Amino acid sequence: MTQKQLAKRQLEIRNKWIMTGIVVLIGTGIYLMVRMSIAAYEERMEDRRVTVDYTYAEAKKRQQKAAPAVSDGVSWSPADGRDIDRFMQPDKFYFHSEQRYQFLNLKMSQKIDAQTLDELLDGQGILDGLGKAFAQASRKEDVNEVYLISHAMLETGKGRSELARGVTLNNEGKRDTDGTRYYNFFGIGAYDNNPVMSGARHAQQQGWDTPEKAVRGGAEFIHREYLARDNQYTLYSMRFNPADPGRHQYATDVMWAHHNARQMADYYKQLGREGRFFTRHYYKR
After folding, report:
1. Domains in the chain: how many in total?
2. Mean pLDDT within 74-100
């Protein structure tokens, strides 16, 4: 090798080392920026207190006008003032071992693997084996997967309701055994006067013709319509919307957040984990 060739070779090696160093520095910089961003977000979201513009009495009055309902386990009836107080008055729930999960920030995936989620879903009707679908939907939409499963369990009667098992409809939205089967796991569009048919027709409109599509579509809807809002990313705020009481609420059932929180607490216990990032809404004094 001539001296000129040797010098050229040395220059090429040096340039490669320089480029490698630049790539490493850029990669390290990006990694540190991401970590700092995550750390800042976690610090900001760890334990938030939000005071709304309504007193509790004002919020309760608006709730009473929104036709709240309560169930005795068999039938539904209008919720009275005592029912609302029992489940809407938040002070006693803030640090309760189970009910504190009403205030968990739900717009963060916990990155739990599909196999672990399948353990929670084992034997739960149509939901059995859908751990991968819940894991993927959680990460894609950035929704807490423990909440997604809890919500689906409650809405579907542990995967056994008619709407969960699927309703076959023809192109006109009428029952037809030769039609396509549609699934709805979150009660979306399932109105109280006829929840099965209205929920099935909504699923048809969305194209939820497989259980996996119903999981993904439900997670997308919940994130877009609730969790992406500034003040509706906890169970409590989804149900009672303290920033605008009586409007844009996920359910009419005054016990909805209470039931979900209890279920989530049980799942977190089974997983050997603790929920993180709480936002507690306080009414104006």
Report:
1. 2
2. 95
